[in-house]
Structures are given as C-alpha cells and as structure tokens.
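Annex B, item 7. Sequence and structure tokens for protein A, then protein B.
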Amino acid sequence: MRISVALCTHNGARFVGEQVASILTQARLPDEIVLSDDASADSTVAIVVEAVRTAGAGAPALTVIENPVALGVVRNFEQAIQATTGDLIALCDQDDVWERDRLEALARRFEADPGLLCVFTDATIIDGDGAPTGATLFQSLELRADELNAVRDGRGFGALLRRNLATGATMIFRRSLLGAAAPFPAEWVHDEWLAIVAAARSGLAVVESRPTRYRIHGANAIGVIEPTLRYKLGRMLEPRGDRNRTLARRGSVLAERLPAMGATADLVAAARRKAVFESRRARMPRNRLLRAVPVLLLAVTGAYGRYASRGLQDIARDLVQPA
C-alpha cells in the first residue's frame, strides 16, 4: 500500500527539520509528503524543501501548499489530507520525532487486517530539547485500562463519545475512511472526528507501543497538557462558558451524520443522548446552590458515567464552577 504523510506546519522552523529527518530515515519510506503550511513567517517551508531535495532520488515525492492566510490547525490538516493520494495517511505535527520503524510497524497492521480503518498509539513525551520527560502520552491523557480495552474489544464508540482518546500526531488511517468522514464538521477537531467515525464503523485500533516522540515545548498550537493538580483545579474553577453547548452540538452533528455511515441505530441514539445530556448541563442555573438538584438528577441516572469525559469529576465540576 502507498503511504502518504500529511505534514502541517505554522512557524515551525525550530523543530521541523528534526521531524522531517525522522520521516526521511524511516525503515519503510512514505511514498509522498504533503506539506500544508499555514502562513508561516519563518523558514519552515524552505527547511522541508531542502531536506527532501538533499535526500536524493529515493526521497518521497513532496507536494507543498502554502496558505497566504492561516486556516487554523483543523482546516489546515483537512486540506493536507485531501491533497494526499496514498492508501494510508499518517498525520504529522511539525515538532515531533518518529522512531525509525513507525511506518513499517503500523503499515503491517493494516496489511494484516482489511477491516482496520484507523490506528492510534501511545508516545514518549519529550521536552523542547528532545529529552524524555519520563511520562508517556497515555499517562498524560490519563487513559484508563477500561477505555483502552473498550477500543480493543470493538466498543470504542462509547468511550470516544465520553472523551477523545486518540491524538492525531500518533494516527494513521486508511483512505477509505474519508468516504464517511469528509467533510470534517466545524464542531469537531480533525483527529477526534476521524477516530470516532472509525469506531462507529468498527475499524478503530490502539497500539500501546510508542513509535512517536511527542514534544511538549510550551508553544504547541494544540494537543496534550500535563495533568498537574494545579491544572485540574484550574479547570474545576474556571467560569462556565460554552463548552457544554459545543459538546451538545457535536453530539447532534454526529447523530445526523451516522446513518449515512451505515452506523447502527443504537449508536445514533447514543449520540443523541449525549447531545441531550450536554444540553441539560449547559442550561443549569448560574447559581451554584440551584444547580445541586439538576446535577443530582442527572447523576442518579448514570448519565455522567456514560457521557461525561471525567465521570464523577464532572459532577463536582458542575457543582462548583462559577458562572
């Protein structure tokens, strides 16, 4: 199968050279790299072009798209993906590093399983200097064994309905997934959408190896945040905004799109229940004391366990968050 790399950049000159070098030294080289640059004001594009040029005749084909006005992370990735031509598409951030056997090992998974649509993996967290921090991506996301087991057992849709488990920088997916996933809805981040669509079609898998070094350097445009106690308390006490309304819209959009994907009626119903659950959370009173009854009424139905990203923590969050 032909492999495409969808590399998206924005002012990535500091790290992109190391990332491209790790792509060009893969045990199984990709057939093409599609670089979609989002209005960089530095030498990002020139670094990528020169790296591929100096790699010689055996280097992957390079397509360069330069956006004069930034599209943003999600739309830039959608543009890059749509420009690829390979059977498998590997999403690629500008600041990570790939282990040498990444593409080879993950491509074998697709070759062995024709029904597989998308794979995501764990990763080693590194800092701005490339040194391992001692943490893994799954640890930083606080992925639980039951969530990973749900993906392995074909029950990933329910887990992803609660919260995203798949990080785009670790993902490879089959081109046929785009038939159901495209166009990407505005309410969803590209990697979350691809993962839940694959799960709805019983084609999502997780690999606990770490073929990617995922860099956290303080200027990431999107991605993982270390789950420190300070961060968790900050989220608990941040003012209530439009988060739940956004989650409700996402559930509604998913429910509308699922029938065309051939999803079962129970998955459509689950997406609708998720939307109703988040709508009820969004409509809770501004006054904390008045929130107690609607929060407890939702809690006794088990809805927080089925549809909230953090279960019991979200009960506490809904009770204490300021308006």
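Protein B:
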Amino acid sequence: MTVLLDMKTVMILIVLGHLFSVLLISAYWRTHTKDQILSKFLLAKLTQGFAWMLIVVRNGIPDVYTMSIANSLLFIGFALETVAMLRLMQAFNRSAKMLYIVLTLGAIIGYLFVIVFNNHENIRIAEASIGTALIMVVPAYFMIRSKAASYIMKLMGLLYIFTIVSLIGRAIVALVSDQTIGMFTPGIYQTFTFLALFLIMFIGNIGFVLLLKEQADQELIRLANYDDLTGILNRRTFVSLSKQMIDEYAKKREHLSLVLFDIDHFKNINDTYGHHIGDRALQQLVKRIRSMLRGTDSFSRYGGDEFAILLPGADESEADRMVEAFRLATTQILIPDMASSLSISLGVVTLIPTEQTRLETLYKLCDKALYDAKHNGRNGAARTRSVSLPG
C-alpha cells in the first residue's frame, strides 16, 4: 500500500499547529510572569509559523526570494526555540549564546550561498536539513548527558536524536538521488518529509510544555520544602525528616544530636541597620554553616533567626566539636555596612533515642539549653547531658 500525502494540506496543518501553539502560550503568558523563556518560545513559534505560511503561498513568486526568506526565518525560529529549551534546562550561557549566533548565521549564509551559486532543490534540501540538525544537537546532548536530567528530559533527548538522524537521512537522500525531489513532489520522500516536519513540531510544542510543567512542579516542591530567604529546609520539612531519623537511630541504637541556635541581639541588628542587612546576615550565616555540615546532617530555619541542625551519629564529643566550630566561624563573618561582627548562642542535646523518643521532647530540652547559653552571656553553647528519653 502506498501512502502519499497532499503536502500543501500538510503545510497548512503545520501552520495551524504553530498558530494554536502561539494562542495557547499567549493565554498562559497573560496570567504568568513575563519571562524570557516564554517570550523567546512564543517568538520562535510566530517566526516558524510565518515561514511555513510563506512557503505555502509562494506560488507565482520566484523561489530565490520566497525560499531564501522562509528558510532564513525557519533557521532563526528553530534557534530561538532551542535557546528557550536550553534556558528551561538552565544550560544557556554566554558560550551557548555565541554558538547559536554562529550556527544560525552559518545556516542562513550557507543556504543563501546555495541559492546564488547552485540553486538545485536537492542541494537546498540537504543544506536546510543539515543546518536544522546542527541547531538541535546541543539540547539533545544536554538532555541525554545531564546528571540532573529527569525521565521526561531524557525521553525528549532521544526524540531529538531521532529527529537529527531523520534530518541527516533526508539530506543524504537528497544528495544521492538521481531525480529532482521536493517537498511538493508526490512520492515516498514527500511522506518522509512530512513525518520529519511533524516530529519537529511535536517535540518543540509538546516537549516545551512538558518541561515547563516539570519546572513549575519542581518550583512548587522547593517552595513547599525550603525556606525562601536562606534556601535551607523549612520547619515542617525538618520536623518530618527528623522524626524519620529518630526512628532510624532508635533501631540502630546510635547517638544523634540536636542543635538549636539563634543570632545574638538580632532585633538590634534589624533596628539599627535595617531588615535588608538582617536578611543578609541570615544568608551569610547559613552559607557559612552549611559548608561545614556533613551529608547526613539536616539544617533548618526554624523561625525568624532561630535555626535547628540534626546531627545523626554525633555523640557528645563530636557534637561539641561541631558546635564550637559553628560558633567560631560565625564570629568571622563580615557583613558590609555593619559595624559589629555576628555571634550566636547554641543549645545542644545528645542521646541514643528509643522508640518512645519524641522530637517535641528533644526540642524542649534543646530550647532550655539555648536559654541557658543566653543567660550565661551569649556567644557560647550550653547542653543537656546525654539521656535516654521516655517520650
């Protein structure tokens, strides 16, 4: 059975596909923050849609004009779409920007060179296919090779690779064929071309939406689990993780330590220098202490300027060493526009938990130790001795 397609109808469907993509993205864009990722993808779809429309209605207009403009716009549209994808993956930097300027200009100049010096449709098809394939290589590489790539991203990368292979195959067929072949010439090549074009549009439109949703989901997870100012765990997530860790170490019969601390005279810092300096102090403090923690430790902003750290496996000696290191490191933090240095007061409790041990009880004991540290003159630590808690 031979499957032949009316390519003008296919082209109109492709134009409509880009048009509906623009309409849907525009509706989304109106109700969300106007960012560069969405705006570039929207511009890419508009550019590609206009280019395909120009190809459809080119009857009576010399190819040297319509195909030069249309394919140049397609190269620009594909490049803008790829840049939007790379921005979505946080893989777009100065080097990538320069690369895409070079690739896009190279593809356009190469195509115009063919138009002027060797204007055969087979050669035009080969150059356009190779130029488009080169533009798609970088996102395909990042989607496949990135360590942080999700399953959706890896699947997108495989589809990109399949499309690149299809484009290269299209170029080879065009170069080795003895007959003049074209997009509007009935035959198997025409069907193959349609499938390649449809796949490019499908990957671009559906893939972008899926990656955008995945990014939004990840942002919701971050907002639900992490403190927005400091980037460490929020109280709810810390409590949940700590309860799991207490149960685990109760089964292992091993030590763990809980540390509470806050910044000495933090209210005076806000009142004297302003809340923006207070926020900067919190951020610098968190950055310094987080760099000193082990991979198993949990660090949370418990509320205001109060922080909590759970140290699994740390006995009294290890916990005291780490707490003193936190205190000394804090005194070395310099905040611009702030005359005095920071200091913290810390409360510590260490124990081998049992099945009856509750985080609420640990917190109360640790909070009392923190109060003792403040009562003793601040810029120091106090602890509740190792105990086995009934609950």
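Comment on protein B: The chain has two domains: 7-225, 235-387.
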